[in-house]
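ERR on first pass: missing label on line 2. Operator R.T. fixed the label and resubmitted. Corrected input:
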Amino acid sequence: MESDAPIVVVKDIEKRFGNYVAVSDFNLDLKQREFFSLLGPSGCGKTTALRMIAGFQQPSKGEIFIDGAPMRDVPANLRPTNMVFQSYAIFPHLNVADNVGFGLRKKGLSRQEIDQQVREALEMVELPNLGTRKADELSGGQRQRVALARALVMRPKVLLLDEPLSALDKKLRETMQLELRRLQQSVGITFVMVTHDQYEAMTMSDRIGVMFQGKLAQVDTPKRLYSAPLNREVASFVGSMNFLKTSLRAEAADVLRVEADGVGPMAVKRNPYGIESGHEPLVGIRPEQLEIGTAQPSGYDVAVKGKVTNVAFYGESIHYYVGIDGQDEPCAVAVTNYFHTVDHQVGDDVWIGFQNSSVIDLGKYQETGSPGF
Amino acid sequence: MTRLQHLRPGLGSYAAAYLAFLYLPVLFLPVFSFNAGTIVAFPLTGFTFQWYEKLAEADALLGALGNSLIVGLATAVISTAIGLFAARAFARHSFFGRGPAEGLVMLPLVIPGIIVASSMLVLFINMGLQPSLLTIIAGHVFLALPFAVSILKSSFDQFDGSLEEAAYDLGETVVGTFRRVTLPVVAPGIVSSFLVTFTVSFDEFVLAFFLAGNEPTLPVYIWSQIRFPAKLPNTLALGTLLILGSILLLLAAEYFRRRAERSSASR
Amino acid sequence: MAISLRSDSAKGYALSMPAVVYVGFLVAVPLALMVAHSFWTQDYIDINRELTLENYRQAVDDPLIRLLLIRSVVIAGLVTGLTVLLAYPIAYFIAFKTQKKALWLILVTIPFWSSYLLRVFAWKLILGYNGVLNSGLLTVGLIDEPLSFILYNPNAVVLTLAHAWAPFAILPIYVSLQKIDPSLLEAATDLGNTAIERFLRVTLPLSIPGVIAASLIIFIPTVGDYVTPALVGGADGKMIANLIQVQFGAANDWPMGATLSIMAILVVAFVAAVFVISLRSAGRRIR
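pass 2 clean. output:
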């Protein structure tokens, strides 16, 4: 149990509903005590994947192992997993304590033991003295905590969370993000969370699996996912990204020398996933990796002249959209809003500069239906 | 909103007049049931309880009442039980032909009573069943099922399916989940369905009239009494009690239906 | 247990089976028997199972049967029209003009739950020659002798049935009005419609499904109503159901009874279909 063996192994899973393929080629190892998020747009199959681990849906193909044991013939009620539902599913006919103790009653514990564990669980989620409260008298945040306590009190090997924060308002959501993370670290259980919110996934997770159309596109730490996305889809779903179509000039073992219209030559570190670049590699630069100024910036590997086409004010930051001759899409530049920074107006001539190390190789350029950002 | 009502006196007073139209005819039964005279006409001739007292002496009436209770209870139990399963299937499961199946179960609501009654008579006689309480129950379950299914379906519709998954996820068995979660949450709907189907059966006349044989239910008994002017005051007293009973049952059903709505509304 | 989760539709079939089979059996088999009977004939106390159209020929030729069928449809049509017309404003009132929706809904449903038989009986007492209405008016001095046109005729049947079916008209119309998104009404006003135009162009067309449902729920059972014409209809107010009952009762001619039932079903289905189609197309023409 305390070895480094993965707690969950998902092997070659496929799930079909009739002719519709919800999940395919799904392989995933979950580590002990990690906070893992399945991130993707709605309809990408992330909830289906979670529900297959829980046992509410059977894979059409493949096998799921939890703590080494195959789960094919283990129904949901006998699996060492518990779930926090999107709607929280608080039993309306029971009070808080009976909700939390619901599963314990099946474990053959004495009344005192159940009461004790329920009390501890409620303290853990910071809802002490709320045991006799009725389900319909709880606020959204309290319901979420009850759902958490009810699942954690079962001491599952894996806790599954289906969009656990989507029903909460923004302020509460941010508080709960930190608290969920703290809770996960203190109980030391593997958490698997499904979410469509990239910021939520990045704030809370040790690792994130990004899913598109039923397939896992990339599994990595938030930092790596952000700095080294595998392809254009991942790059644009996680954070925002400027995309440049380039021409290959020369290639070395780990560096590509490319040139983009209107931008000039760049030296780009080869994509660490070893994807093919072709003659027209696509590269990306995060908006905050760009410097903007009225004079030509010094000390940058690349400097380009352009014209401000749009300005978006976000409070803590300002985004300038800079049109560059030779590029169809304007380049987004994010600037931290220090109060002493110079404002640029639409129509201003500006310079933007960046380092070669900020440029990300995204593989062969492919026509896609949607723009980069 | 009240101000709006003042702005539109037309609609408000129309609604009041409509209610009077709905209630007044029925209110004449209680009024004349306390009238000393045997003729149902104005002016009233005095106040009396004697018609109610006489009810207790009518053996045939008590027999019919007993029959109606048996038929009503059996109908309520059977149609609520069958309806519970069907409602769950219609609310929770998607299967080929669900729409038509639901339509079929609702069909008894719109078949003219005389057609149901006569065709069931033909069916039961051809099956070798003589008219009896049993055949009435069979017919009443048919008529009451649409009510049971629609009441129970709305209880299931309002109840979040992940509650059952949560129970199952917490280690309950399928049967345990039904007992500890489904049943308690749907319970008010079940009570409501039970009361409504009982009332449907208790008040039903035409089918019972065709299928009663020599075991009349209460409405069939009343029908036989309506023809005798001398028995009119008795019938009025009986009718008053029945209307009162029906209204109490309906209010109880409504109370439980609302409790169902409140308890299953998960925010 | 895993199976129960695996096959959603198998579970659906299993659970709905008892109800579907029960109702299906009690619709299909009696109907088949009725159809069969309608092609047989009554031969004194036995049934002659030779297939023949004799019953239908007799029924079509018999002016009394034709009259009863037509009268049943006309009365049911009048009842439907009257009930829907009277009920629409109430449904509108409950949906839009009062905060106490639940109370009003209960108030209009309660009378339905008192025995139908007793409600019809109450009307008989009210409308009778020496009844409540006549004696009341006489006592007050508004009339000198009892009114005789109010009981034992089709008017009495229409009035009684319209009273009996009122809740059935209110509820479906209310439901369809309730579903209308208030912003649609605001949009209509915003686009320059007066209150009346808004009602005619938005509210009314959107409530047509409720009107159709209400009409069918009233019309279909009313065509075959037995109690009301028997109690308040007199000789001129009898309907087809009364004749059907006689065939299954005193006349003991089941084949003829079955024939009349089948004819009633066909007439009801035809009229209902024509009604639904024409009302739907009328609804579509409103722009």
